[in-house]
Amino acid sequence: MSQTNEIRHVLLGRSDDEIIAWVRSVGGSAALLEQAFLGMKEAFHADRAQGQSALIRWDITTPEGDLSTYEVEVADGECTVSRGAHGDARVALAMQLPDFLRLVTGGLDGLQAYEAGKLRVTGDLALARALTEWFQETH
């Protein structure tokens, strides 16, 4: 079972408060976000983003009320991740940590999250829709 599947299993059916308690038990928001964005980089499919370049900003609100910003840059078939805001993002996505974890582990659909107000998107909506394909885990 992949780490993503293990986390998905832990999150399944849990309330936000239960997810927050679990996050604290495994080292806190910062450590888990680092792990999540590393996993995103590993899940990148260059063939699905062929010919594309984009700077994608993620603003994740932690249970402590802090804003953690990460940028994912796709260019020349490569994906890099950095903490903080460094450039002009083509799309910016904002979520609360529990919903972000559900999204990146496949437990929450991006379109449904957007429609429910759990995912805020600024910028290129078409790019935001394409991200699911670019970073989809293979099973």
Portion in beta strands: 15-25%
Distance between the termini: 10 Å
Biggest sheet strand order reads 3-2-1-4-5
**Class from secondary-structure proportions:** alpha+beta
Helix content: 40-55%
Count up the helices: 6
From the alpha carbons, calculate the radius of gyration and give it in angstroms.
Answer: 14 Å
> How does the major sheet shape up?
5 strands, mixed
Arithmetic mean of pLDDT: 91
**Total strand segments:** 5
Basic shape: globular
CATH superfamily: SCP2 sterol-binding domain
What is the CATH level 1 assignment? Answer: Alpha Beta
Number of domains: 1
In N-to-C order, the SSE pattern is: HHHEEEEHHEH
CATH architecture: 2-Layer Sandwich
Low-pLDDT parts are: none
CATH topology annotation? Nonspecific Lipid-transfer Protein, Chain A
Explain this structure to me?
The protein is of the alpha+beta class and 139 residues long. It is 41% helix and 24% strand. The longest helix is centred in the first third of the chain and has 14 residues, at 29-42. The radius of gyration is 14 Å and the shape is globular. It starts with a helix and ends in a 5-residue tail after the last helix. The relative contact order is 0.19.
Outline of the structure:
The protein has helices at 3-11, 16-25, 29-42, 97-104, 110-115, 125-134, and strands spanning 54-61, 67-75, 78-83, 91-96, 120-123.
From the structure above, extract its key features.
139 residues; alpha+beta; Nonspecific Lipid-transfer Protein, Chain A; 5-stranded mixed β-sheet; 6 helices; 41% helix; 24% strand; globular
